[in-house]
Design brief:
The protein is an alpha+beta fold. The chain is built from 28 helices and 13 strands. α6 runs antiparallel to α18 and α13 packs across α14. The longest helix has 22 residues. It is globular.
Length: 620
Protein backbone atom coordinates (compact mmCIF):
# COMPACT_ATOMS: atom_id res chain seq x y z
CA UNK A 1 0.00 0.00 0.00
CA UNK A 2 1.32 3.41 -0.88
CA UNK A 3 1.77 5.82 2.04
CA UNK A 4 1.53 8.86 -0.18
CA UNK A 5 0.59 9.76 -3.72
CA UNK A 6 1.35 13.11 -5.33
CA UNK A 7 -1.50 15.20 -6.62
CA UNK A 8 -1.19 16.10 -10.32
CA UNK A 9 -3.26 18.83 -11.90
CA UNK A 10 -3.53 19.85 -15.54
CA UNK A 11 -5.04 23.09 -16.83
CA UNK A 12 -7.68 22.95 -19.57
CA UNK A 13 -9.44 25.66 -21.53
CA UNK A 14 -13.21 25.50 -21.44
CA UNK A 15 -15.41 26.41 -24.43
CA UNK A 16 -15.95 29.81 -22.82
CA UNK A 17 -12.20 30.44 -22.74
CA UNK A 18 -11.80 29.99 -19.00
CA UNK A 19 -9.08 27.86 -17.40
CA UNK A 20 -10.09 24.94 -15.23
CA UNK A 21 -7.89 22.58 -13.23
CA UNK A 22 -8.47 18.85 -13.65
CA UNK A 23 -6.89 16.17 -11.47
CA UNK A 24 -5.04 13.49 -13.46
CA UNK A 25 -3.42 10.19 -12.59
CA UNK A 26 0.28 9.43 -12.52
CA UNK A 27 0.11 7.28 -15.66
CA UNK A 28 -1.03 10.24 -17.73
CA UNK A 29 1.73 12.43 -16.28
CA UNK A 30 4.35 9.77 -17.02
CA UNK A 31 3.14 9.43 -20.61
CA UNK A 32 3.22 13.22 -21.07
CA UNK A 33 6.79 13.37 -19.72
CA UNK A 34 7.90 10.48 -21.94
CA UNK A 35 6.56 12.16 -25.09
CA UNK A 36 8.07 15.52 -24.11
CA UNK A 37 11.43 13.90 -23.49
CA UNK A 38 11.45 12.43 -27.01
CA UNK A 39 10.74 15.86 -28.53
CA UNK A 40 12.94 18.08 -26.32
CA UNK A 41 14.99 16.56 -23.50
CA UNK A 42 15.92 19.94 -22.01
CA UNK A 43 12.31 21.02 -21.86
CA UNK A 44 11.40 17.68 -20.28
CA UNK A 45 14.00 18.15 -17.55
CA UNK A 46 12.72 21.67 -16.93
CA UNK A 47 9.17 20.30 -16.64
CA UNK A 48 10.36 17.75 -14.08
CA UNK A 49 12.27 20.29 -11.99
CA UNK A 50 9.51 22.88 -11.98
CA UNK A 51 6.77 20.42 -11.07
CA UNK A 52 8.72 18.45 -8.48
CA UNK A 53 10.55 21.44 -7.05
CA UNK A 54 8.12 24.31 -7.13
CA UNK A 55 4.61 22.88 -6.85
CA UNK A 56 4.50 21.90 -3.21
CA UNK A 57 1.82 19.24 -3.54
CA UNK A 58 4.24 17.16 -5.59
CA UNK A 59 7.10 17.28 -3.04
CA UNK A 60 7.32 13.97 -1.21
CA UNK A 61 6.46 14.76 2.45
CA UNK A 62 9.33 12.76 3.94
CA UNK A 63 8.86 14.36 7.33
CA UNK A 64 5.24 13.20 7.51
CA UNK A 65 6.17 9.72 6.31
CA UNK A 66 8.85 9.38 8.98
CA UNK A 67 6.44 10.69 11.61
CA UNK A 68 3.86 8.09 10.56
CA UNK A 69 6.41 5.29 10.89
CA UNK A 70 7.54 6.59 14.29
CA UNK A 71 3.98 6.47 15.65
CA UNK A 72 3.05 3.18 14.03
CA UNK A 73 2.22 0.31 16.37
CA UNK A 74 4.67 -1.94 14.54
CA UNK A 75 7.52 0.39 15.53
CA UNK A 76 6.38 0.54 19.15
CA UNK A 77 6.01 -3.22 19.28
CA UNK A 78 9.56 -3.67 17.96
CA UNK A 79 10.87 -1.38 20.73
CA UNK A 80 8.99 -3.33 23.40
CA UNK A 81 10.29 -6.68 22.09
CA UNK A 82 13.85 -5.31 22.05
CA UNK A 83 13.56 -4.30 25.69
CA UNK A 84 12.10 -7.67 26.60
CA UNK A 85 15.21 -9.34 25.20
CA UNK A 86 17.60 -7.00 27.04
CA UNK A 87 16.19 -4.73 29.72
CA UNK A 88 19.45 -2.77 30.24
CA UNK A 89 20.49 -2.13 26.63
CA UNK A 90 19.53 1.30 25.25
CA UNK A 91 17.21 1.33 22.23
CA UNK A 92 17.68 3.68 19.29
CA UNK A 93 15.62 4.46 16.24
CA UNK A 94 17.69 4.85 13.06
CA UNK A 95 16.73 7.24 10.26
CA UNK A 96 17.88 6.40 6.75
CA UNK A 97 16.95 7.10 3.15
CA UNK A 98 15.84 4.45 0.69
CA UNK A 99 18.88 4.94 -1.56
CA UNK A 100 21.49 3.31 0.73
CA UNK A 101 23.87 1.18 -1.34
CA UNK A 102 26.10 -0.14 1.45
CA UNK A 103 26.11 -0.14 5.25
CA UNK A 104 29.84 -0.89 5.29
CA UNK A 105 32.40 1.37 3.62
CA UNK A 106 35.32 0.58 5.94
CA UNK A 107 36.47 -2.20 8.24
CA UNK A 108 33.30 -2.02 10.32
CA UNK A 109 29.64 -1.67 9.49
CA UNK A 110 27.60 1.28 10.67
CA UNK A 111 25.84 -0.52 13.52
CA UNK A 112 29.11 -1.93 14.89
CA UNK A 113 30.43 1.64 14.99
CA UNK A 114 27.27 2.78 16.78
CA UNK A 115 27.53 -0.01 19.35
CA UNK A 116 31.18 0.71 20.11
CA UNK A 117 30.54 4.44 20.49
CA UNK A 118 27.61 3.85 22.82
CA UNK A 119 29.47 1.33 24.98
CA UNK A 120 32.62 3.42 25.40
CA UNK A 121 30.86 6.72 26.03
CA UNK A 122 31.05 8.03 29.60
CA UNK A 123 27.68 9.77 29.18
CA UNK A 124 24.43 8.52 27.63
CA UNK A 125 24.39 9.21 23.90
CA UNK A 126 21.09 10.64 22.70
CA UNK A 127 22.06 10.92 19.05
CA UNK A 128 24.69 9.57 16.66
CA UNK A 129 25.60 9.69 13.00
CA UNK A 130 28.46 8.48 10.85
CA UNK A 131 27.46 10.48 7.78
CA UNK A 132 27.38 9.20 4.23
CA UNK A 133 29.65 8.91 1.20
CA UNK A 134 29.46 8.67 -2.59
CA UNK A 135 31.84 6.30 -4.38
CA UNK A 136 34.16 7.45 -7.14
CA UNK A 137 32.56 4.78 -9.34
CA UNK A 138 29.29 6.72 -9.23
CA UNK A 139 30.91 10.09 -9.85
CA UNK A 140 34.47 11.08 -8.84
CA UNK A 141 33.70 14.80 -8.44
CA UNK A 142 30.65 14.12 -6.28
CA UNK A 143 32.73 11.68 -4.25
CA UNK A 144 35.36 14.37 -3.65
CA UNK A 145 32.71 16.95 -2.70
CA UNK A 146 30.96 14.64 -0.24
CA UNK A 147 34.27 13.56 1.32
CA UNK A 148 35.24 17.20 1.92
CA UNK A 149 31.82 17.87 3.41
CA UNK A 150 31.89 14.79 5.66
CA UNK A 151 35.40 15.54 6.95
CA UNK A 152 34.37 19.12 7.74
CA UNK A 153 31.25 18.01 9.62
CA UNK A 154 33.25 15.52 11.66
CA UNK A 155 35.92 18.11 12.45
CA UNK A 156 33.41 20.83 13.37
CA UNK A 157 31.72 18.48 15.84
CA UNK A 158 34.97 18.19 17.81
CA UNK A 159 34.59 21.78 19.01
CA UNK A 160 30.84 22.36 18.59
CA UNK A 161 29.16 18.91 18.77
CA UNK A 162 25.68 19.93 17.61
CA UNK A 163 26.67 22.59 15.10
CA UNK A 164 27.03 20.34 12.03
CA UNK A 165 24.00 19.06 10.14
CA UNK A 166 23.11 15.50 11.23
CA UNK A 167 22.06 14.07 7.85
CA UNK A 168 18.75 12.36 7.05
CA UNK A 169 20.40 9.44 5.16
CA UNK A 170 21.98 8.27 8.40
CA UNK A 171 21.24 9.21 12.02
CA UNK A 172 20.11 7.45 15.20
CA UNK A 173 18.24 8.86 18.22
CA UNK A 174 17.81 7.34 21.67
CA UNK A 175 14.34 6.24 22.80
CA UNK A 176 13.93 6.98 26.49
CA UNK A 177 13.42 4.04 28.86
CA UNK A 178 9.82 4.92 29.73
CA UNK A 179 8.74 5.36 26.10
CA UNK A 180 8.18 2.97 23.22
CA UNK A 181 8.97 5.60 20.57
CA UNK A 182 10.37 9.11 20.56
CA UNK A 183 8.51 11.43 22.92
CA UNK A 184 8.77 14.29 20.39
CA UNK A 185 7.49 14.74 16.85
CA UNK A 186 8.79 16.26 13.65
CA UNK A 187 7.61 19.88 13.66
CA UNK A 188 5.10 20.91 11.01
CA UNK A 189 3.75 17.51 10.04
CA UNK A 190 0.26 17.57 8.46
CA UNK A 191 -0.21 14.19 6.83
CA UNK A 192 -3.99 14.26 7.30
CA UNK A 193 -4.44 17.90 6.36
CA UNK A 194 -4.06 18.52 2.63
CA UNK A 195 -4.42 22.29 2.93
CA UNK A 196 -1.62 22.61 5.47
CA UNK A 197 0.51 20.04 3.69
CA UNK A 198 0.63 22.45 0.76
CA UNK A 199 2.86 24.62 2.96
CA UNK A 200 5.37 21.80 3.25
CA UNK A 201 9.07 22.46 2.91
CA UNK A 202 11.60 19.68 3.22
CA UNK A 203 14.81 21.03 4.70
CA UNK A 204 16.70 19.78 7.74
CA UNK A 205 14.33 17.07 8.89
CA UNK A 206 16.63 15.33 11.39
CA UNK A 207 18.17 18.58 12.73
CA UNK A 208 14.66 19.89 13.40
CA UNK A 209 13.77 16.68 15.23
CA UNK A 210 17.01 16.91 17.25
CA UNK A 211 16.02 20.45 18.21
CA UNK A 212 12.77 19.06 19.63
CA UNK A 213 14.72 16.39 21.54
CA UNK A 214 17.04 19.04 22.99
CA UNK A 215 14.05 21.15 24.06
CA UNK A 216 12.56 18.31 26.08
CA UNK A 217 15.66 16.58 27.41
CA UNK A 218 18.11 19.46 27.84
CA UNK A 219 15.82 22.47 28.32
CA UNK A 220 16.66 23.68 24.82
CA UNK A 221 20.40 24.04 25.47
CA UNK A 222 22.51 22.68 22.62
CA UNK A 223 25.60 23.48 24.69
CA UNK A 224 24.46 21.14 27.46
CA UNK A 225 23.26 18.55 24.98
CA UNK A 226 26.51 18.63 22.95
CA UNK A 227 28.45 15.89 24.83
CA UNK A 228 25.47 13.55 24.35
CA UNK A 229 25.57 13.70 20.54
CA UNK A 230 28.39 12.23 18.43
CA UNK A 231 29.34 12.65 14.79
CA UNK A 232 31.54 9.57 14.46
CA UNK A 233 34.68 9.50 12.35
CA UNK A 234 34.12 6.06 10.82
CA UNK A 235 31.28 3.93 9.60
CA UNK A 236 29.79 6.22 6.95
CA UNK A 237 27.28 4.52 4.67
CA UNK A 238 27.30 4.79 0.88
CA UNK A 239 24.25 6.28 -0.80
CA UNK A 240 23.20 6.82 -4.39
CA UNK A 241 24.23 10.08 -5.99
CA UNK A 242 21.54 12.77 -5.57
CA UNK A 243 20.95 14.77 -8.75
CA UNK A 244 21.30 18.07 -6.86
CA UNK A 245 25.00 17.35 -6.31
CA UNK A 246 25.61 17.81 -10.03
CA UNK A 247 23.42 20.88 -10.47
CA UNK A 248 23.97 24.58 -9.94
CA UNK A 249 21.68 26.69 -7.78
CA UNK A 250 18.07 26.99 -8.84
CA UNK A 251 17.22 29.78 -11.27
CA UNK A 252 14.16 32.01 -11.06
CA UNK A 253 12.17 29.77 -13.37
CA UNK A 254 12.78 26.78 -11.12
CA UNK A 255 15.26 25.03 -13.40
CA UNK A 256 18.90 24.25 -12.74
CA UNK A 257 21.90 24.03 -15.02
CA UNK A 258 24.11 20.96 -14.88
CA UNK A 259 27.61 21.51 -13.50
CA UNK A 260 30.37 21.02 -16.03
CA UNK A 261 33.64 19.44 -14.84
CA UNK A 262 36.88 19.57 -16.78
CA UNK A 263 39.23 17.61 -14.52
CA UNK A 264 40.73 14.24 -15.33
CA UNK A 265 40.19 11.32 -12.93
CA UNK A 266 42.25 8.15 -13.19
CA UNK A 267 40.22 5.11 -12.19
CA UNK A 268 43.40 3.05 -12.08
CA UNK A 269 45.18 5.38 -9.65
CA UNK A 270 41.97 6.41 -7.90
CA UNK A 271 43.06 10.06 -8.05
CA UNK A 272 42.51 13.23 -10.06
CA UNK A 273 45.37 13.79 -12.47
CA UNK A 274 44.07 17.29 -13.22
CA UNK A 275 41.65 19.76 -11.63
CA UNK A 276 40.46 23.11 -12.89
CA UNK A 277 39.64 26.21 -10.90
CA UNK A 278 35.96 25.84 -11.81
CA UNK A 279 36.01 22.18 -10.78
CA UNK A 280 37.10 23.12 -7.27
CA UNK A 281 34.47 25.86 -7.07
CA UNK A 282 31.77 23.33 -8.01
CA UNK A 283 33.08 20.84 -5.46
CA UNK A 284 33.12 23.41 -2.67
CA UNK A 285 29.67 24.78 -3.51
CA UNK A 286 27.85 21.46 -3.51
CA UNK A 287 24.34 21.64 -2.09
CA UNK A 288 24.28 21.54 1.76
CA UNK A 289 28.07 21.32 1.94
CA UNK A 290 29.81 22.53 5.10
CA UNK A 291 32.76 23.45 2.89
CA UNK A 292 30.96 26.66 1.91
CA UNK A 293 32.25 29.19 4.41
CA UNK A 294 28.99 31.04 4.77
CA UNK A 295 26.97 27.87 5.39
CA UNK A 296 29.61 26.67 7.88
CA UNK A 297 29.42 30.03 9.64
CA UNK A 298 25.64 29.95 9.81
CA UNK A 299 25.74 26.57 11.56
CA UNK A 300 28.28 27.89 14.08
CA UNK A 301 26.37 31.14 14.62
CA UNK A 302 23.13 29.26 15.33
CA UNK A 303 24.90 26.88 17.73
CA UNK A 304 26.38 29.77 19.75
CA UNK A 305 23.07 31.58 20.08
CA UNK A 306 22.85 30.75 23.79
CA UNK A 307 25.92 32.87 24.45
CA UNK A 308 24.64 35.95 22.60
CA UNK A 309 24.90 39.10 24.70
CA UNK A 310 22.82 42.27 24.85
CA UNK A 311 20.86 43.66 21.94
CA UNK A 312 23.33 46.44 21.19
CA UNK A 313 27.13 46.40 20.97
CA UNK A 314 29.39 49.42 20.71
CA UNK A 315 32.53 49.22 18.60
CA UNK A 316 35.07 51.96 19.39
CA UNK A 317 38.27 52.68 17.51
CA UNK A 318 41.14 54.69 18.99
CA UNK A 319 39.17 57.42 20.75
CA UNK A 320 36.91 57.88 17.75
CA UNK A 321 33.12 57.85 18.07
CA UNK A 322 31.91 54.26 18.11
CA UNK A 323 29.35 52.48 15.99
CA UNK A 324 26.35 50.90 17.70
CA UNK A 325 25.30 47.50 16.35
CA UNK A 326 21.67 46.89 17.29
CA UNK A 327 20.30 44.82 14.45
CA UNK A 328 21.76 42.63 11.75
CA UNK A 329 24.13 41.00 14.23
CA UNK A 330 23.60 37.76 12.35
CA UNK A 331 24.89 39.34 9.12
CA UNK A 332 27.84 40.84 10.92
CA UNK A 333 28.93 37.74 12.85
CA UNK A 334 28.27 35.24 10.07
CA UNK A 335 30.45 37.38 7.81
CA UNK A 336 33.22 37.36 10.43
CA UNK A 337 32.95 33.62 11.06
CA UNK A 338 33.00 33.05 7.31
CA UNK A 339 36.21 35.06 6.99
CA UNK A 340 37.82 33.05 9.79
CA UNK A 341 36.78 29.73 8.26
CA UNK A 342 38.04 30.63 4.79
CA UNK A 343 41.35 31.80 6.28
CA UNK A 344 42.13 28.25 7.48
CA UNK A 345 40.57 26.32 4.57
CA UNK A 346 43.18 25.13 2.02
CA UNK A 347 40.51 24.91 -0.68
CA UNK A 348 39.10 28.39 0.02
CA UNK A 349 42.54 30.02 0.10
CA UNK A 350 43.64 28.17 -3.02
CA UNK A 351 40.62 29.36 -4.98
CA UNK A 352 41.21 32.94 -3.87
CA UNK A 353 44.97 33.03 -4.44
CA UNK A 354 44.93 31.17 -7.75
CA UNK A 355 42.34 33.60 -9.10
CA UNK A 356 44.28 36.61 -7.82
CA UNK A 357 47.82 35.59 -8.81
CA UNK A 358 47.49 32.88 -11.45
CA UNK A 359 49.26 30.13 -9.48
CA UNK A 360 49.03 26.52 -10.58
CA UNK A 361 45.99 25.22 -8.71
CA UNK A 362 47.22 21.75 -7.77
CA UNK A 363 50.67 23.07 -6.92
CA UNK A 364 49.22 25.66 -4.60
CA UNK A 365 46.84 23.14 -3.04
CA UNK A 366 49.71 20.84 -2.15
CA UNK A 367 51.67 23.69 -0.62
CA UNK A 368 49.13 23.43 2.23
CA UNK A 369 49.71 19.70 2.49
CA UNK A 370 53.44 20.31 2.70
CA UNK A 371 53.26 22.79 5.57
CA UNK A 372 49.85 23.79 6.83
CA UNK A 373 51.28 25.53 9.92
CA UNK A 374 53.43 27.91 7.90
CA UNK A 375 50.71 28.64 5.36
CA UNK A 376 48.33 29.78 8.10
CA UNK A 377 50.89 31.41 10.41
CA UNK A 378 50.58 34.89 8.88
CA UNK A 379 47.57 36.34 10.64
CA UNK A 380 46.50 38.51 7.71
CA UNK A 381 42.78 38.17 7.16
CA UNK A 382 41.09 38.70 3.82
CA UNK A 383 37.97 40.18 5.34
CA UNK A 384 34.79 39.69 3.35
CA UNK A 385 33.20 43.09 3.81
CA UNK A 386 29.81 42.11 2.47
CA UNK A 387 29.42 45.05 0.11
CA UNK A 388 31.22 48.25 -0.81
CA UNK A 389 30.47 51.69 0.58
CA UNK A 390 28.12 52.37 -2.30
CA UNK A 391 26.03 49.28 -1.72
CA UNK A 392 22.29 49.87 -1.85
CA UNK A 393 21.60 46.90 0.44
CA UNK A 394 21.61 48.23 3.99
CA UNK A 395 22.58 44.93 5.62
CA UNK A 396 25.71 44.42 3.49
CA UNK A 397 26.65 48.09 3.63
CA UNK A 398 26.44 47.99 7.43
CA UNK A 399 28.65 44.94 7.61
CA UNK A 400 31.17 46.32 5.15
CA UNK A 401 31.47 49.76 6.74
CA UNK A 402 31.88 48.43 10.27
CA UNK A 403 34.47 45.83 9.31
CA UNK A 404 36.48 48.40 7.37
CA UNK A 405 36.47 50.87 10.22
CA UNK A 406 37.07 48.71 13.25
CA UNK A 407 39.22 45.77 12.14
CA UNK A 408 42.87 46.42 11.52
CA UNK A 409 44.58 43.31 12.90
CA UNK A 410 43.86 39.65 13.52
CA UNK A 411 43.54 40.29 17.28
CA UNK A 412 41.03 43.09 16.58
CA UNK A 413 39.01 40.56 14.66
CA UNK A 414 38.82 38.09 17.54
CA UNK A 415 38.21 40.72 20.20
CA UNK A 416 35.29 42.22 18.28
CA UNK A 417 33.63 38.79 17.98
CA UNK A 418 33.81 38.40 21.76
CA UNK A 419 32.03 41.73 22.28
CA UNK A 420 28.80 40.12 21.10
CA UNK A 421 28.86 37.19 23.53
CA UNK A 422 28.62 36.71 27.28
CA UNK A 423 31.62 34.37 27.19
CA UNK A 424 34.79 34.51 25.10
CA UNK A 425 34.09 32.25 22.14
CA UNK A 426 36.29 33.70 19.38
CA UNK A 427 39.24 31.42 20.18
CA UNK A 428 36.97 28.40 19.93
CA UNK A 429 35.59 29.52 16.57
CA UNK A 430 39.20 30.01 15.49
CA UNK A 431 40.09 26.52 16.71
CA UNK A 432 37.09 25.02 14.92
CA UNK A 433 38.17 26.80 11.72
CA UNK A 434 41.69 25.43 12.01
CA UNK A 435 40.61 21.86 12.73
CA UNK A 436 38.21 21.95 9.78
CA UNK A 437 41.00 23.30 7.58
CA UNK A 438 43.28 20.47 8.71
CA UNK A 439 40.55 17.95 7.94
CA UNK A 440 40.74 18.96 4.27
CA UNK A 441 44.39 17.87 4.01
CA UNK A 442 43.89 14.07 4.01
CA UNK A 443 41.07 14.44 1.47
CA UNK A 444 43.39 16.34 -0.86
CA UNK A 445 46.04 13.63 -0.46
CA UNK A 446 43.55 10.84 -1.04
CA UNK A 447 41.95 12.28 -4.17
CA UNK A 448 44.51 14.44 -5.96
CA UNK A 449 47.69 13.31 -7.67
CA UNK A 450 50.66 14.74 -5.79
CA UNK A 451 52.83 17.18 -7.72
CA UNK A 452 56.16 18.79 -6.78
CA UNK A 453 55.67 22.08 -4.96
CA UNK A 454 57.75 24.92 -6.37
CA UNK A 455 56.09 28.14 -5.28
CA UNK A 456 58.64 30.25 -3.40
CA UNK A 457 56.37 33.30 -3.75
CA UNK A 458 53.66 31.79 -1.60
CA UNK A 459 55.49 32.24 1.68
CA UNK A 460 57.19 35.53 0.78
CA UNK A 461 56.14 38.34 3.13
CA UNK A 462 55.37 41.82 1.91
CA UNK A 463 58.09 44.38 2.77
CA UNK A 464 55.78 46.17 5.21
CA UNK A 465 55.14 43.01 7.20
CA UNK A 466 57.43 41.64 9.87
CA UNK A 467 58.19 37.92 9.68
CA UNK A 468 56.88 35.73 12.46
CA UNK A 469 58.83 32.79 13.76
CA UNK A 470 56.94 29.67 12.77
CA UNK A 471 57.10 26.86 15.26
CA UNK A 472 56.76 23.19 14.33
CA UNK A 473 53.23 21.89 14.95
CA UNK A 474 52.61 20.53 18.42
CA UNK A 475 51.71 16.89 19.01
CA UNK A 476 48.05 17.88 19.09
CA UNK A 477 48.33 19.63 15.73
CA UNK A 478 50.11 16.63 14.24
CA UNK A 479 47.35 14.36 15.47
CA UNK A 480 44.69 16.57 13.93
CA UNK A 481 46.49 16.74 10.60
CA UNK A 482 46.64 12.97 10.47
CA UNK A 483 50.43 12.70 10.90
CA UNK A 484 51.68 10.60 13.81
CA UNK A 485 53.57 12.62 16.43
CA UNK A 486 57.29 12.46 15.78
CA UNK A 487 57.03 12.44 11.98
CA UNK A 488 57.31 15.30 9.56
CA UNK A 489 53.98 16.78 8.56
CA UNK A 490 55.14 17.17 4.97
CA UNK A 491 55.23 13.43 4.31
CA UNK A 492 51.47 13.00 4.41
CA UNK A 493 51.90 9.57 6.09
CA UNK A 494 48.71 8.53 7.80
CA UNK A 495 46.85 11.56 6.52
CA UNK A 496 43.77 9.49 5.78
CA UNK A 497 43.42 8.93 9.52
CA UNK A 498 43.10 12.65 10.30
CA UNK A 499 39.49 12.76 11.33
CA UNK A 500 39.79 9.46 13.23
CA UNK A 501 42.67 10.89 15.25
CA UNK A 502 40.69 14.04 15.83
CA UNK A 503 37.79 11.96 17.09
CA UNK A 504 40.16 10.17 19.49
CA UNK A 505 41.22 13.57 20.79
CA UNK A 506 37.58 14.53 21.26
CA UNK A 507 36.98 11.43 23.41
CA UNK A 508 39.78 12.34 25.79
CA UNK A 509 38.83 14.27 28.93
CA UNK A 510 41.33 16.98 28.04
CA UNK A 511 41.03 20.16 26.00
CA UNK A 512 43.27 20.50 22.94
CA UNK A 513 44.38 24.12 22.93
CA UNK A 514 45.95 25.79 19.92
CA UNK A 515 49.74 25.93 20.04
CA UNK A 516 51.17 29.41 20.74
CA UNK A 517 54.15 30.68 18.79
CA UNK A 518 57.36 31.87 20.41
CA UNK A 519 57.33 35.59 19.68
CA UNK A 520 58.60 38.50 21.74
CA UNK A 521 55.10 39.99 22.30
CA UNK A 522 53.88 36.61 23.57
CA UNK A 523 56.81 36.28 26.00
CA UNK A 524 56.24 39.81 27.30
CA UNK A 525 52.53 39.20 27.74
CA UNK A 526 53.18 35.94 29.62
CA UNK A 527 55.68 37.48 32.03
CA UNK A 528 53.70 40.68 32.49
CA UNK A 529 50.56 38.76 33.38
CA UNK A 530 52.34 36.49 35.83
CA UNK A 531 53.92 39.53 37.49
CA UNK A 532 50.46 40.56 38.68
CA UNK A 533 50.73 37.85 41.35
CA UNK A 534 54.43 37.01 41.68
CA UNK A 535 57.72 38.94 41.64
CA UNK A 536 60.02 39.00 38.64
CA UNK A 537 62.71 37.51 40.90
CA UNK A 538 60.50 34.48 41.46
CA UNK A 539 60.07 34.07 37.71
CA UNK A 540 63.84 34.34 37.21
CA UNK A 541 64.41 31.62 39.78
CA UNK A 542 61.86 29.29 38.21
CA UNK A 543 63.20 29.83 34.67
CA UNK A 544 66.83 29.38 35.80
CA UNK A 545 68.10 32.76 34.57
CA UNK A 546 69.94 35.49 36.41
CA UNK A 547 68.01 37.97 38.55
CA UNK A 548 66.61 40.93 36.64
CA UNK A 549 66.22 39.13 33.33
CA UNK A 550 62.41 38.83 33.39
CA UNK A 551 62.03 42.53 34.15
CA UNK A 552 64.40 43.46 31.30
CA UNK A 553 62.50 41.20 28.87
CA UNK A 554 59.19 42.91 29.64
CA UNK A 555 60.51 46.47 29.64
CA UNK A 556 63.52 46.57 27.35
CA UNK A 557 63.84 43.47 25.16
CA UNK A 558 63.76 44.08 21.40
CA UNK A 559 64.90 40.68 20.09
CA UNK A 560 64.40 37.00 20.83
CA UNK A 561 67.64 36.61 22.79
CA UNK A 562 68.86 33.33 24.30
CA UNK A 563 67.52 34.35 27.74
CA UNK A 564 64.08 35.07 26.28
CA UNK A 565 64.04 31.64 24.64
CA UNK A 566 65.25 29.98 27.85
CA UNK A 567 62.40 31.50 29.85
CA UNK A 568 59.83 30.53 27.21
CA UNK A 569 61.16 26.96 26.98
CA UNK A 570 60.87 26.50 30.74
CA UNK A 571 57.21 27.57 30.78
CA UNK A 572 56.43 25.65 27.58
CA UNK A 573 57.82 22.37 28.85
CA UNK A 574 56.42 22.55 32.38
CA UNK A 575 53.10 21.19 33.57
CA UNK A 576 50.54 23.37 35.31
CA UNK A 577 51.42 21.90 38.71
CA UNK A 578 55.13 22.56 38.14
CA UNK A 579 54.47 26.19 37.23
CA UNK A 580 52.10 26.75 40.16
CA UNK A 581 54.56 25.19 42.61
CA UNK A 582 57.60 26.94 41.15
CA UNK A 583 55.96 30.38 41.27
CA UNK A 584 54.10 29.71 44.55
CA UNK A 585 50.81 30.59 42.85
CA UNK A 586 47.36 29.36 43.85
CA UNK A 587 44.44 28.63 41.52
CA UNK A 588 42.78 31.75 42.89
CA UNK A 589 45.88 33.79 41.94
CA UNK A 590 45.49 32.58 38.37
CA UNK A 591 41.89 33.83 38.17
CA UNK A 592 43.32 37.34 38.67
CA UNK A 593 46.28 36.76 36.35
CA UNK A 594 44.07 35.49 33.51
CA UNK A 595 40.72 37.16 34.26
CA UNK A 596 39.30 33.66 33.75
CA UNK A 597 36.86 31.71 35.89
CA UNK A 598 37.92 28.88 38.18
CA UNK A 599 36.16 26.25 36.08
CA UNK A 600 38.16 27.07 32.97
CA UNK A 601 41.43 27.12 34.89
CA UNK A 602 40.64 23.80 36.54
CA UNK A 603 39.92 22.21 33.14
CA UNK A 604 43.25 23.49 31.83
CA UNK A 605 45.08 22.28 34.94
CA UNK A 606 43.53 18.81 34.67
CA UNK A 607 44.38 18.58 30.99
CA UNK A 608 47.61 17.45 29.38
CA UNK A 609 48.20 20.57 27.26
CA UNK A 610 51.28 22.73 27.68
CA UNK A 611 51.02 25.51 30.20
CA UNK A 612 51.52 28.35 27.71
CA UNK A 613 48.97 27.00 25.21
CA UNK A 614 46.20 26.88 27.80
CA UNK A 615 47.41 30.16 29.36
CA UNK A 616 46.87 32.08 26.14
CA UNK A 617 43.52 30.50 25.32
CA UNK A 618 42.27 31.48 28.80
CA UNK A 619 43.90 34.91 28.89
CA UNK A 620 41.37 37.66 28.18
Amino acid sequence: MSLWEPQWIKRELTTSGQVRCVEVGFDEVAEYYKNLKEKDIKLAHAFLQVNEGEHLNSIVPYRELRETLLRDEATKGLVRRSRARSSTAPVYVAFMDADVLSFRTGKKGIFSCYEEAISRSQVPLHGLTTGYTISTIQHPFASLAVSFDLATRQALSIVFPLAPYFPEPNAALLILDDHDTLEVSFPGTFLDNTAKRAQYRSPQEVPLLITEVVKVRFKGSKIQAGPHFKFLSEGAIETELPCRFLQNRKKKDGTKNAKEFNGLFSSEAGKFEALSHQDLIHVRNTSQSHMKSRDWSTYVYNYLGEYMGSDSVQLVENNQPGAIVKKRKDQFLISMFSTLHSFYSPVAVTLREVEAHGYNLVEYLFSFVKDYASMTSRKILRVTYGGDSGSKVKSTKLTGDLLRKHIRTYDDFLSIIDKFYTQPIAKFVERASQICGMAELPIIIRYVQLVPVSLPKILTLQPSEKPQEVKQPSAIQLQLSGVPAGTKSSTGDGAEQAVERADQLRRQPTIGYLAVNLTLPNVKKLLGRLNRRCAYATIDGFAGVKAGNSWRVVNKAKTLSSNVKTIWTKFSSSTWDQVLTGLNLSMQDLTHVLNADMKGIQLAKDGSSRFVDAFFILEK
